[in-house]
Design brief:
Blueprint: E1 3-9, H1 12-22, H2 31-53, E2 66-71, E3 76-81, H3 88-95, H4 103-112, H5 116-126, E4 137-145, E5 152-157, E6 162-168, E7 174-181, H6 196-207, E8 214-218, E9 221-224, H7 241-252, E10 260-266, E11 272-278, E12 295-299, E13 302-308, E14 320-325, H8 334-339, H9 341-364, H10 366-380, H11 383-386, H12 391-397, E15 400-402, E16 409-410, H13 412-418, E17 425-430, H14 434-438, H15 444-449, E18 453-456, H16 459-467, E19 470-471, E20 474-478, H17 492-508, E21 513-518, E22 527-530, H18 538-546, E23 556-560, H19 565-577, H20 581-597, H21 605-619
Parallel strand pairs: 2-8, 12-14, 17-18, 17-20, 21-23
Antiparallel strand pairs: 1-6, 2-3, 3-7, 4-5, 4-7, 5-6, 8-9, 10-11, 11-14, 12-13, 15-16, 15-18, 19-20, 22-23
Helix pairs in contact: 2-6, 4-5, 9-10, 9-12, 17-19
Bound molecules: adenosine-5'-diphosphate.
Length: 620
């Protein structure tokens, strides 16, 4: 007898994903089996752990395994596990909805991407799990019973908008998923998922490392089709790149190969093995608040937890993989892990290893390094603020856009090697876009002298440049802050000549700036605005305000180019006529122009255009 059968609707994101799968624009359909086996394996891991922690759990843990059965006559394929199972609520929450952060962004990008290769790539990055079944099935039936509960659940759907769910008695513990396969595609033998031989091949290829037995029955024979060896426990010479890649897909829920595989083994007082991966692309939630981080933690081959944040600092949150420690208790909790000295030591070692791996990529595989940096550089730079101990190692693997070559990023080492005789600092300019920085008047004199300037456009750049003092004994110096001494041509004589004008302008522009002075930064522009050495930049000021922080208005300094005709004209006009309204307006226009030139926003655009229009009028 079954009770309370209901027809429910999929959540809208889930519905859209299902549509994708039904019309399967993803070419490698075999992946559906990997996803089902991966879920089954996770369910067995969870059961073993829960049974260990909860001695009262009424669960059968004697022969945990996965079973795959095919029925060519009825064209079905069933994947069964006797793991943790799901309650009715679990099924509704886990199978009826997609709770992955970044789903909306993913779907939006997918809609925007017109070409099919790009769409495939996106789907691969997103890593669709259970729903991948609908690439090959036109109906899916799921039977499940949560370990410790009497009540079973039957779920069924054709993937089109709704599913039915009902409570059923007498189900075995765990989950079985039956796919009613789509009609055979005669042109494409690959589609024959009722062939036991085919299924065996797929399991071997994608799921061999699963540490639970995957069994198939052929005639009277029951055979285990995977070798069940934990990859990280095997000697590395023994494991092929393909095996690592497939394992990565399992732990990372990614459908693409990793960029790099990192192995680490420690023997002695505390023994552990780590198998880590640098993904080939950033996850959609890399910069979202609810993002996950951390690798899987195992203790003596027993799965303990996903997303073990104690093992990975925030700025390396994209690293995936497994750490298997020998001497921890199976009962260990997240709170204990945060304090655990052993875990802290493992983490230090993992971090160093990851950073040194990236450094090696830099010198040995420039393409891979570039991909890494493009995808994860913004996150890695957070480490310059958070990880004092590894600051130099992080600076070593950073690269930045620079005025040296618009096509190429530069490392700091390369920058330092190119430094001109007499150049004391590593110069940089921060801003919102490369274009606004490159056109900024602040760069003029540096360009004229042939000094290279780093072009920093990530929001995080605004912060680390303040925290990090230098690299290889060279200080970082903003070209838009403080006084720069470019053994300039501003002579004492000039200073004297201009001093009256500057004092006057400082008063007349007192609302906008804290000082007006002569500049050695400029060659062609009449004026620019610079910050005081220790002041926050306008971009940072804006960022803080956006985050809801109270910020006092920070006034900057207006610098004038004494060699520019407009500025020398101002000086002679002031010398002849003294203070005048016209002069004050010119000063205001000059300030507005300097703001616009650095890509800034005018305080009162209406007034600026009015002043400008009346000036233009006079020229006609
Ligand atoms: P993912 O595996 O990436 O989380 P899925 O869509 O494949 O996404 O599965 C969603 C969730 O459903 C899983 O996280 C798991 O909690 C649950 N689930 C799926 N398959 C099983 C299973 N065989 N046994 C128990 N729970 C399962």
């Amino acid at each position: 007898m079954s009770t309370s059968a209901e027809t429910l609707e999929f959540q809208s994101e889930a519905r859209q994903l299902l549509q994708l799968m039904i019309h399967s624009i993803y070419s490698n359909k075999d992946t559906f089996l990997r996803e089902l086996v991966s879920n089954a394996s996770d369910a067995l891991d969870k059961l073993r752990l829960e049974a260990f922690r909860d001695k009262d759990l009424q669960a059968d843990t004697d022969d945990l395994h996965i079973e795959i059965g095919t029925d060519p006559e009825n064209r079905t394929l069933t994947v069964r596990d006797n793991g943790i199972g799901m309650s009715r609520d679990d099924v509704v929450a886990l199978i009826g909805t997609i709770a992955k952060s970044g789903t909306a962004e993913f779907l939006k990008k997918l809609k925007e991407s017109k070409d099919s290769a790009a769409s495939q790539d996106l789907i691969g990055q997103f890593g669709i799990g259970f729903y991948a079944s609908f690439m090959v099935a036109d109906k899916v039936t799921l039977l499940t019973r949560r370990a410790g509960s009497d009540e079973g659940v039957r779920w069924e759907s054709e993937g089109e908008g709704t599913y039915t769910i009902e409570t059923v008695p007498d189900l075995p513990q765990g989950t079985s998923v039956t796919l009613h396969l789509k009609p055979e595609d005669t042109e494409d033998q690959l589609f024959d998922y009722t062939s036991a031989t085919k299924i065996k091949q797929i399991v071997k290829k994608y799921s061999d490392f699963i540490t639970w037995p995957i069994r198939m029955t052929e005639g009277e024979e029951v055979a285990t089709v995977n070798s069940m060896k934990a990859l990280w426990a095997r000697s590395s010479s023994d494991v092929t790149e393909d095996e690592y890649n497939e394992f990565y897909k399992h732990v990372a829920h990614d459908w693409n190969d990793p960029l790099e595989t990192i192995r680490l083994q420690a023997e002695g007082t505390f023994e552990y093995q780590a198998l880590l991966f640098l993904p080939g692309h950033a996850p959609l939630d890399l910069f979202m608040r609810e993002r996950k981080r951390g690798v899987q933690l195992y203790v003596k081959r027993v799965f303990i937890m996903d997303d073990c944040e104690a093992l990975m600092p925030e700025y390396l949150r994209f690293v995936k993989g497994v750490v298997d420690a020998q001497d921890l208790s199976l009962n260990v909790s997240r709170e204990i892990l945060q304090q655990d000295r052993q875990i802290q030591l493992i983490r230090r070692r993992l971090v160093k290893k990851i950073l040194s791996t990236v450094k090696t990529l830099m010198s040995q595989n420039a393409d891979k390094y570039e991909t890494f940096w493009k995808e994860f550089g913004r996150a890695v730079k957070e480490g310059l603020l958070d990880d004092f101990e590894n600051r130099t190692a992080i600076l070593d693997i950073c690269s930045f856009a620079s005025t040296n070559d618009p096509e190429k990023q530069t490392t700091l080492r390369e920058y330092v090697e190119r430094m001109k005789d007499g150049q004391e600092h590593i110069y940089y300019l921060t801003g919102e876009s490369r274009q606004s920085i490159e056109n900024s008047p602040h760069l003029e004199a540096f360009q004229a002298k042939g000094y290279e300037v780093l072009v920093l456009t990530d929001p995080i750049d605004e912060m680390w440049v303040d925290a990090v003092s230098g690299y290889e004994e060279k200080q970082f110096q903003s070209v838009a802050k403080g006084e720069v001494e470019l053994d300039s041509d501003t002579t004492d004589e000039q200073k004297e000549e201009f001093s009256g004008l500057l004092t006057y302008l400082t008063t007349s522009l007192a609302e906008q700036v804290k000082e007006v002075r002569l500049s050695s930064r400029l060659t062609t522009s009449p004026a620019c605005i610079v910050g005081d050495t220790n002041d926050v930049t306008p971009t940072l000021e804006k960022m803080y305000r956006a985050m809801g922080q109270e910020m006092p208005q920070i006034k900057r300094i207006l610098e004038l180019n004494p060699g520019h005709p407009l500025v020398s004209g101002l000086r002679s006009s002031f010398a002849e006529n003294g203070e005048s309204e016209g002069l004050a307006e010119t000063a205001e226009l000059l300030y507005g122009m300097a703001l616009l030139a650095e890509g800034g926003e005018l305080g009162d655009p209406a007034r600026f255009t009015k002043l400008l229009a009346s000036r233009l009028e006079k020229t006609l």
